Amino acid sequence: MRDxxxxxxxxxxxxxxxxxxxxxxxxxxxxxxxxxxxxxxxWLDWTIAPVDEVHAKLAAQDHRRFIKTHTPLDGxxxxxxxxxIVVARHPLDAAVSLYHQGSNLxxxxxxxxxxxxxxxxxxxxxxxxxxxxxxxxxxxxPREHLDMLPGVMAHxxxxxxxxxxxxxxxxxxxxxxxxLEGEMRRIxxxxxxxxxxxxxPALVKAASFAxxxxxxxxxxxxxxxxxxxxxxxxxxxxSGAAAELL
Length: 246
Fold this sequence. Notes:
The protein is α/β, with parallel strands linked by helices. It is built from 15 helices and 4 strands. The radius of gyration is 18 Å and the shape is globular. The N and C termini lie far apart (43 Å). This is Sulfotransferase domain-containing protein.
């Protein structure tokens, strides 16, 4: 690892891509990024891509790196000089997003790349309501099923227990939604990045949900063609979907 590395550790559908985009805007200080977001911020533990390929991409980067991972902090090397960001979201809202993301994935393409057949449970899915209720009741091993409720709570609980550590910043999806500029400024301060006042309006606009959805082709994490629609990846961008459902 490098001393100035930024590690973004999240559960799926907790604002990962949003936080990557914020870091990209702060690092490059322009909405016109030099490459698609997944290239600028490789997914460290993505099982679809060969490990050596991911490591080579990271090693070749000469800008300040901001690395995506879905591994909890207790599974990562903690470099004292690096900066870590953990993003939380209401678990039920994340579950709703997970369900919709599941419908957007091309399971056959995933099977082709991994060599693992599509499970029958993925072929015949229950309704959104039934799936979310089942998700809340599942008693899975949090280390084996990281995106089920026990895994989500283990990831976030471990981060919360470390909240006083100087190289860890906790961010919440609802706060990003309520005060994007304020949260971007807080993240910039934590990362020791100075942004001229004149640049803030354009950077905040570029990090908005509307702008990210409009540029989904270059923002969605899909370099291997696993999604039916990159636009659908940015489905809603708000909180409260689970409350409406349940």
